[in-house]
Amino acid sequence: MDESWLRNLLESVAGGATEVDTALSHLRRLPFADLGFARLDHHRALRTGFPEVVLAQGKTTEHLSAIVVELASTGQNVLCTRTSPEQAEAAMLALPKARYHPLSRLLIVEQKPPERRGQGPVVVACAGTSDLPVAEEARLTAELLGSQVVALNDVGVAGLHRILAVEATLRSAAVIIVVAGMEGALPSVVAGLAGRPVIAVPTSTGYGASFRGLAALLGMLSSCAAGVTVVNIDNGFGAGYAAALINRGLAVPPSSGLAALATESGS
Prior knowledge:
Rossmann fold; 2 domains; five-stranded parallel beta sheet; disordered C terminus
């Protein structure tokens, strides 16, 4: 349930095409649906522009299937992260339109094409093939949230000429997501080349002293290049979501009261 849907419903009521009782039946589940084991936030898209996203990890197959069916019943797209094959199989039996992406472990129910919004493409630069699962999580998330995405795979610093060869693509981006494991050096290189906001994603790829991504995380947090922000280890979803928000250039909603405060503080 997003702003466009609610606006159409209210205009239909105002124009006499929809009865008030019918509209109430549509709105009855706002702001959330209580399934007993979960309270699903149907109001999320109205507040933030995007529906609630589900972390599948740790949930039973029955719980996840029920959550997916309920969220999809509103007509919104649904995104589940960290989904196991068993969870995906059960959810797709309950909702055949759901699609599973094994590499990224994302379960997606796309019921309407994402509204393309943004200042430019989001570029996802992946250091090595071993980092692809996290890069794909970022790419698919940003796409579902409305951004055009360009993927640059296997452009790590061990062969620096590979990232230098795509400098024009980096400069065309509104936001760049850089996914890297090992020592995590690629975000610094990209930030120094591109002059764009860089969201760095450390991955757990690497040998013993990489400490399952801790070395990459600390390296990215210690970047000497300006404009690098860092998300958690293996958090492709967080990077894709943040990139989509930045790309949209979300402003403070006028109705929130904060818009006036922002205007006053800037005057």
